[in-house]
Every structure is written in C-alpha cells, then in structure tokens.
User: Fold these one by one.
Assistant:
Number 1:
Amino acid sequence: MTENIAQLEAHRSALMGHCYRMLGSVVEADDAVQETMIRAWKSIDRFDGRASLRTWLYRIATNVCLDFLADRRRRFHPVDEGPAGSVDDPLEPRPRTHWLEPIPDAEALRADADPSELAEMRESIRLAFVAALQHLPPKQRAVLLLVEVLGWSAAEVAESLNTSVASVNSALQRARATLATRNITEPAPMSESQERLLEQYVDAFHRYDVDQLAALLCEDATFCMPPFSLWLRGPESVRAWLLGRGAGCRGSRLLPIAACGSPAFAHYHPCPDGTYKPWAVIVLELSGDRIAAWNSFLDTETLFPRFGLPMQLPEQCLHEREIFSQDR
C-alpha cells in the first residue's frame, strides 16, 4: 500500500501543472489532483501497464478536470473582460472564483525534469498562455494540452477522452485557430538585460520612484489588480495610479518568489507597528527589456499560504531577505 501511494505521489507536481492549465486556479487544481489520486488509488489494481503510470494518471486527471468544468464558468483575466479603464474609475471586486490565479512554480514543475523539459513546462504555466486557454471550450482545451504540451498522438487523446480521432483533430484545429488570435509570444530565456530590469524594478519600488517604474514599462503595458475588474494600459496611466490611489504602496517591500514560470514577487505593505503585512502576489510579464504586464493578485489569504509565505514579517526579516535572489 505504501509503495503504491509513493508511486502516485511522485507524479503530483506534473498533475498539478496539467490541472492548473485546465482550470486556471491553483486551488481548484489542488482539488482536482486530490480527486485524481483518489480515483487512481481505487482503481490501481486495474492498471494494466499498457501505458506508463504517468500517462494513466494524466488520463484520469483530464477527465476529472472536464467534470469540474461541466458546472463551472471559465476563469477570467481582467484585460480579457473589457476595455482599459482610467485611474478615476470605480474599483469593482468580483469573487475569487471569477479570476485566474497564479501558481507557485514549485507546485507545478517536476524537480526531476531535464532543462529543456523544464523550460517547456515553465512556458506552459505562463499567465498569458493559461489566460488564453480559458477562451477554449473545455474539450478543446484538453485536446490542445494533451497534444501540444504532453505530446500525445490523436489516437491516444481519442482513447483518453472516449471519442474519435476525427473529433480530436477537429477540436485541435479549432483550438489552434482560437489561440492564434490571442497573439501569444514565446518567451526567450531570461537575459542579463532582463535580470537588470528586475533589479531596477525592485530598487525603484523600494524607493517608490514612480517615474522610474513607469520608465520600465512598455508603451502598451497592462496593469491589473484582481479581484478588481479595473485594469490600466500604458506607463502614464500606471504612473498616475501609483501617485494617486495607489500611493499607499509607498514604503512596501518585495520578496522574490517563483510563480507561473515568470518573474514574481511577494508584496508586503508596512504597518504602523513596524511589521509588514501581505498585500499582493505580483507576476510580471516581460517583453525584451521592458515590462509588458504587471499583475498584482490581492487575494493574499489564499495565495500567500500556497507560496509558503508568512502572513506577517518583522522589519528586520525583510531587510535580511531583500537582496535580489540569485536563483531565479
């Protein structure tokens, strides 16, 4: 029994990545993986070994996710819901279950993956890619992921989803056509200039140099703060926000974390008693040597524990950890 559990658990991170891509939520992905493990455990005696254990688990996980999606709406990213707003627009929150969520790299990436596989897996959990996947109907999403990310043949996918090869090929064609309209660019490996960009971002944030922060953004950069539906476009709008309604972030500190295969930070806000409280998980998307998207996820009660982050930090602890991470 113990050996069987260990064999199943060895695939947990791979399954988390797959379920996250399907569902767009780290919380729901965790629930889906738990259900996958339960179903696998109950039927392990019927595993005939014709496919690998991982492939068998992916089949179960895919069908679990399709069951989940049968009675759930897709997850949204603010920039996909409507036009860019202005700094004077009202802040209208939506429920946590409405929004796309970031995922810790440690939960979604296999520790034993080789460098090339690791790079592919990081790309597949990027916010831009997962957000684009949410525009696909669940079955198309499953087909695309099984073929494009996991490298399955149409016949393997058809068997897994209990459908025909023709149906799989048709779904794949439609899914590819939809994603082509989303203008998703493939990121290059982090360059030295991008490493410097992130250092400049952290330094400017700590000094609250708003002009410098705006200068680091692309001309069409986006800025959003789920659970609020408001999002902004362009350096001037972001600058106006940071100097106006966002000025309360002055004095905050950032700690490097790993999320969605992208540069990310835990944002802590100063308190009157000298401690710092969680404010946001920030995920940045880069384009060349500029920031293309600044995503601040404010659901700290859900997200900080997922990243193993404390809900309060003393000032001295932040000073000890604020040196820029070298293992990004």
Number 2:
Amino acid sequence: MKRVPAACALAAALLATAGSQALAQAWPAKPIRMIIPFPPGGATDLIGRLSAQRLSEALGQPVLVESRAGAGGTIGTELGMRSAPDGYTLTFSVASYAVNPSLYKLAFDPVKDIQPIIQLSQGPILLAAHPTLPVKSTRDLIALARRNPGSVNFSTTGQGTISHLAAEHFMSLAGVRMTHIPYKGTGPALADTVAGHVSLTFGNVFATLPLARSGKLRAIALTSAQRISGDPSIPTLAESGVPGYEIVLWHGLLGPRGLARPIVDRLNGELNRSLKTKEMIDRMEGDGLTPAGGTPEMFGERIAKDIELYRRIVAKAGIKAE
C-alpha cells in the first residue's frame, strides 16, 4: 500500500515534465511583447530593440517593443510584472530597477514577483573632474574634500538616480562630504561640468569618456570592480583608495513570476548566444558596456544584491525621490 502514493507522485512528475516539454515546443505561437519602461531613443532603448530583433530571428515570431516610460521605469515594469506568465510579455530592465524599491511604493515584490531571465550587460559610471580642479586621482580628491568639507561640488543625472547613489556611496566609504548638484539628465549635468560651473560629475561612460579624451574633463576613476577595455588606463575606485566600492550599470530581461522554466531557458539560451555576436558586442562597447550573460539565477542574485546595497545607501543618505 505504501507504494501507491510513490507511484502517484512519479506519475504526476512525469505528467508535469511532459507538460513542460509540450509547452516549450508550442511556444511561441504568436508575437511576443517586450516592454521597455523608458522613452525611445536612448542607449537603453537601442539595446532593448536590438535584443528584441535577435529574439525575433531566433524564435521565428515578432518581438514587438512597447515603450511605457514614467516614474523611473516603475510604470512599465509594473505592467510587465502583472502580465500573464505565458511568455508573451517580457520586460526589459536596467540597473535603476534595483534603486526603485527604496524610493517608490511598488505594486509588486521586486524579488519574489519576478522571473529573472538574463543579465545582458554590465558597465561602470565614470567619475570625472573639470581640469581646473586640482586633483588627478581619487586619493587627491579625497584629500581635497577632507581639507575643505562641502567645498567640492558634483553633478548627477538627478535626485535619487544611480549616479547620485554612486556619489553618496563614494562619500560614505571615503569619509568625505561634497555638495550635490542634481540635473535632469546626462546632457545638462555634463554641460555644466564642462563649463566649470560644477567641479565633478558621475556620468555614464558613453557620454563622459569622450569629453575626458578630448581634455574637456579629467577621468578620475570607474565605479565598477574592473577596468574597461575602452580605456584600461582609468583605475577603479576600489583600487584607488576606496576598497570594497562597486556600483554597476546593467541591462537585463525579466518575466513575471510563474513563467515556465522551459521558456526561461529558451530565452536565456538564445540571448546568451546573441551576446557573442559582433553586432551586440560593438553596440554595448559603444555605450561603455560589456556583454554579461549567465544564468537566470546569476541575474537574480545581482538584482537582490543591488536592491540591498541601494537600500542601505538611500537610508544612510536620507535620499527622497523627486
């Protein structure tokens, strides 16, 4: 009699496996929607659309991009996470996803209500100074900021953005105080730094590195744990007097909780393959990023780690969303 439950369990397992295999074979049977929760035209949109194009070619079904911008990406992301877990609605995500739980009241759990699929890219923020600021290294900057607390100012892309949190994390670990000058986006933040109205900037590599190469700004350090191939002469903050420092920008793909594992694995496999193509590598390196790849579990660990890091930074600095 004891064998009956075991036999039933085995039968149920076999049926579930057969059902998963059938689902994987049948999917996708219609076009797939990819929500990008940011405005069209930026680097995020371009990488998202290129990923959608690669998936369309691999899956044999159109992957249609739908831009749903607003509230730091939370509007489009919430729409995606509330969708049916059938593989026909995917959500393109960026590193600010991990910041938003600390700044906004979300309609979903940012860890439990998602299915990570793949981290597509990774890259740093570049700390750069106006040439008139008398510093050439991170240690110079720390020394200056300690001698004159609050006298050094820095630009970011806005209150509560990752560039702002990167600066707050730097000040906390380095034990210095500087003055934050928030802007509404990369363009105006860099323009005022180049003009000398602001001493420092925490900017994305794509827009900031060319200004450093031209001499309009001076590259100080990167927020990532590794140097970049685009300019290996620029050190990281972690190796320049701020041990343990790391802030990473990334792009990735999410699905809602309950998305079947065969679909997750198919998407992960196809996108891992696409990240090895010259077009994807060139596109990302042009934006100061490198392909990431890896398993869904690796991406989930990155998200959870970043959420916890940003919660600590936001709480310690008392940051509020605008």
Number 3:
Amino acid sequence: MSPAEVEVILGQPSSSQSQPIPLVGGTQTTYTYQNGASAVTIIFKNNKVKEKSGTFGS
C-alpha cells in the first residue's frame, strides 16, 4: 500500500518523518498514529508499506 492508500483508511497520521535510505537510495517514511495509550507505526520504503506494528493499551 502507498501512504495515500493508508491515509484513506486511517486518516492523517499523528506524526510522520521521512529520511533518505543510505547506500540503497530512496526514502523511508514513518507514520505514527497515536490515540491515548494505543499507537500504530507504519514504515514505508519507497512509498510502499514494509513494516507495521502497534501497541494497544487500556
């Protein structure tokens, strides 16, 4: 999925950060969605989802 497709489903992230990927080239972007004690982090490499994780609090 692309960042635009993720935003259609989850909305705008609470925070985002982009940085170049050393040696390989391209860009890595991290979206974080925060809601109280719960958070979801999605990492894009060259505008494709590569990793996702979440913590879900009470």
